[in-house]
Specification:
The chain is mainly alpha-helical and 292 residues long. It has 13 helices and three strands. It has a three-stranded antiparallel β-sheet with strand order 1-3-2. Strand 2 and strand 3 form a beta hairpin. The radius of gyration is 22 Å and the shape is globular. One of its GO terms (molecular function) is monooxygenase activity. It holds the Pfam family p450. This is Cytochrome P450.
Length: 292
C-alpha cells in the first residue's frame, strides 16, 4: 500500500476530506505514535483512502490507496510537484541547491538532465559493470582476510565501503575509503550521523514559528554534518583541478567540471558539490541499509 503525505501548509480549503478529530494545538500528532505508517493505515480503514490530518499547525492530506495516489500524481502532478521542505534540509541552503528539494523550475530540470544523462544512463551503468564486480571482489577478499585472522566483520560498514568505493570510482576514479581506514570510519560516521539527525521528528516542521529558535538543534547538527561532507568533496575537486586542469580521467567528475566551465552561471561550483554529495550519500546509504 502506497502512503503519500502531502503538506498543504496554511492554505484553507472549502471542503477537506474526512479525518480524525485532533487535540488543540498539537492536532493528530499523538495518534501517529512511533509507527506512523501503521497508524495511517489503520486510520484509513475508518476514514477512507483520502483523509485529512492536523499535525501541529500544518494541514495534511493523506492518500493511503495506490490507485488514488496514482490518479493524483498522473492528473495533478504539477500541483503536487513541490515537496515538503523539512527544517533540517534547510541547512547549507540544501533546499535551494539540491535537486531533491528544489521546486520544479528550469534549474531543477537542468540538474535532472545532468543526472539522467551523466549519472543514471544505461550506458554509464553498463560501462561500470566490471568496476562493480571488482569492488565486490575487494569485499570478498576483506571478509576472507578477517576470517583468516579471527577478526569480526562489521557488516554494515563493510557494505557501506563497498558501495561507496563503487560509486566514488565512477565519479572520481578513486577509492574514497578503505576497509579499517580512518577515512572510512569518518565518512561512515558522518553519513550515519546526518541521516540520524534528519530522520528525527522536529518540532519546527509542525510549528514553523519555532524555526528561528531551532529548539532541538536539529538544523545546526545537520549543518555540521553536511559541511564536513561537502569539505571532503570540495578537497577532491580542488585536487583534480590543481593536478590536471579540467581532468584527464574519463569519469563523472571530469564531465561535471567541464559543464561548470562551459556554463558557470547555470551550473555553479556549489551545484557541482551538491550533485556529488547527493549521489554519494544517497547511493551509499541505500546500500548500507540493504546490508543491515
Amino acid at each position: 500500500m502506497a502512503i503519500n503525505v502531502l503538506k498543504l501548509g496554511r492554505r484553507k480549503y472549502a471542503s477537506l476530506p474526512p479525518g480524525p478529530r485532533g487535540l488543540p494545538i498539537i492536532g493528530n500528532m499523538l495518534q501517529l505514535g512511533t509507527l506512523p505508517h501503521q497508524a495511517l493505515a489503520k486510520l484509513s480503514q475508518t476514514y477512507g483512502p483520502v483523509m485529512s490530518l492536523k499535525l501541529g499547525t500544518m494541514t495534511t492530506i493523506v492518500f493511503s490507496s495506490s490507485d488514488v495516489a496514482e490518479e493524483v500524481f498522473k492528473e495533478h502532478d504539477k500541483s503536487f510537484a513541490n515537496k515538503t521542505i523539512f527544517d533540517a534540509v534547510r541547512a547549507c541552503d540544501n533546499d535551494k541547491l539540491s535537486m531533491g528539494w528544489q521546486p520544479a523550475d528550469a534549474h531543477w530540470r537542468f540538474l535532472r538532465k545532468i543526472c539522467h544523462t551523466e549519472i543514471f544512463s544505461v550506458k554509464q551503468l553498463e560501462a561500470n559493470q566490471g568496476l562493480r564486480q571488482r569492488k565486490l571482489q575487494d569485499l570478498q577478499e576483506h571478509v576472507l582476510e578477517c576470517s583468516q585472522t579471527g577478526r569480526a566483520v562489521h557488516i554494515a560498514q563493510a557494505g557501506f565501503i563497498t558501495s561507496l568505493n563503487s560509486l566514488s570510482n565512477t565519479i572520481f576514479s578513486m577509492d574514497l575509503a578503505h576497509y579499517d581506514s580512518k577515512m572510512s570510519h569518518e565518512f561512515f560516521g558522518l553519513v550515519r550521523g546526518l541521516f540520524k539527525v534528519i530522520s528525527k521528528p522536529n518540532l519546527t516542521d509542525f510549528f514553523p514559528i519555532l524555526r528561528f529558535l531551532d529548539p532541538q538543534g536539529i538544523r545546526r547538527q545537520s549543518e555540521f554534518y553536511q559541511e564536513k561532507l561537502m569539505a571532503i568533496l570540495d578537497d577532491i575537486v580542488n585536487t583534480r583541478l590543481e593536478s590536471d586542469g579540467h581532468g584527464n580521467n574519463d569519469d563523472m567528475l571530469n564531465t561535471l567540471i567541464k559543464l561548470h566551465h562551459e556554463n558557470e552561471s547555470k551550473f555553479s561550483r556549489k551545484d557541482l558539490i551538491v550533485v556529488l554529495l547527493k549521489n554519494e550519500i544517497q547511493h551509499a546509504d541505500t546500500e548500507k541499509r540493504k546490508m543491515l
